[in-house]
Automatic annotation (TrEMBL):
Keyword RNA-binding: yes
GO molecular function: RNA binding
Signal peptide residues on this chain, from the entry's feature table: none
SMART domains (UniProt xref): RRM
Descriptive protein name: RRM domain-containing protein
PROSITE patterns the record matches: RRM
Keyword Metal-binding: no
PANTHER family in the record: HETEROGENEOUS NUCLEAR RIBONUCLEOPROTEIN 87F-RELATED
Native species: Zingiber officinale (Ginger)
Amino acid sequence: MATSSVSSNLLPSSSSRPIGSASQDSPCRLPLASRIFVRNLPYSTGEATLIKLFSKFGQIVEIKLAREEETWRSKGYAFIQYSSQEQAVLALEEMDRK
């Protein structure tokens, strides 16, 4: 399910949701390695589900769930930004192929 980090550029059809107070942990100032790419998600998966599943590995700073432009339906993948690289690696190790 989770694979290594990829480019932070998303299509305009994605939704971006900052989590918690990110004033000092702006996604722009965090290392790219603290962002993970999650794929093969059911189309019904929402941001709340991703928060529930992935917050146990660390502080989530931002979630970008890719959505169809017209229907706003999930495209089946998301980017999750953690506050540290260690948290992202832990999430990758624990959630890979699940």
